[in-house]
């Protein structure tokens, strides 16, 4: 049964392998009470995975309405925790990059290519080193010298 296949976020990725006929048969032949039960079980799973209530309700509502079309099409692993972790890391990187640029802007004009390099960097440890270097630098040129050496001040 479909519900047996869903035990973790990674299991959602396997749903695209289920033949379309299975969902058609499920939609056509399942009593309303079974669809409601499947919907509730999937809803609990989605909520445990920290999917927002509105999204979980929309997803399970489609099951109860027997609307399985494109329900799992293009459905990769639904891992909200991983997505949020990545978003937090990207946010931290962006914040550090902005702080570096703010410190450097007080020291002089920052070349556009340097701005782009700093904003595109995602390595938090490197950004931390650059931030410390920018805080200690007396000029943009001094920062660039240290940065070009690949050995920013710790």
Describe the SSE topology.
Layout: H1 20-29, H2 32-48, H3 53-64, H4 80-105, H5 112-120, H6 124-136, H7 140-149
Walk me through this protein's architecture.
The chain has 154 residues and is mostly helical. It is 63% helix and 0% strand. The chain is built from 7 helices and no strands. Helix 4 (80-105) runs antiparallel to helix 5 (112-120) and helix 4 (80-105) runs parallel beside helix 6 (124-136).
Amino-to-carboxy terminus distance: 56 Å
Biggest sheet architecture: none
Helix tally equals 7
The radius of gyration computed from the alpha-carbon positions, rounded to a whole number of angstroms, is 25 Å
**What's the helical proportion of residues?**
55-70%
Please report which band the strand proportion falls in: under 5%, 5-15%, 15-25%, 25-35%, 35-45% or over 45%: under 5%
Q: Count the beta strands.
A: 0
Query: Low-confidence runs (pLDDT<50, min 5 residues)?
Result: 149-154
Quaternary state reads single chain
Specify the overall morphology: rod-shaped
The assigned structural class equals mainly alpha
Write down the secondary-structure element order: HHHHHHH
Q: What average pLDDT do the residues reach?
A: 79
């Amino acid at each position: 049964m479909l519900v047996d296949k869903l035990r973790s976020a990674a299991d959602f990725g396997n749903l695209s392998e289920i033949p379309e006929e299975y969902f058609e048969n499920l939609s056509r032949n399942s009593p309303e009470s079974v669809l409601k039960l499947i919907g509730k079980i999937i809803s609990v799973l989605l909520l445990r995975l920290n999917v927002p209530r509105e999204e979980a309700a929309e997803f399970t509502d489609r099951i109860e309405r027997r609307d399985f079309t494109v329900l799992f099409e293009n459905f990769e692993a639904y891992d909200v925790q991983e997505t949020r972790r990545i978003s937090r890391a990207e946010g931290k990187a962006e914040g550090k990059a902005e702080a570096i640029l703010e410190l450097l802007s007080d020291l002089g004009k920052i070349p556009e290519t340097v701005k782009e390099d700093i904003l595109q960097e995602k390595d938090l440890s490197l950004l931390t080193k650059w931030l410390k270097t920018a805080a200690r630098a007396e000029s943009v040129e001094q920062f660039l010298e240290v940065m070009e050496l690949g050995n920013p001040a710790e």
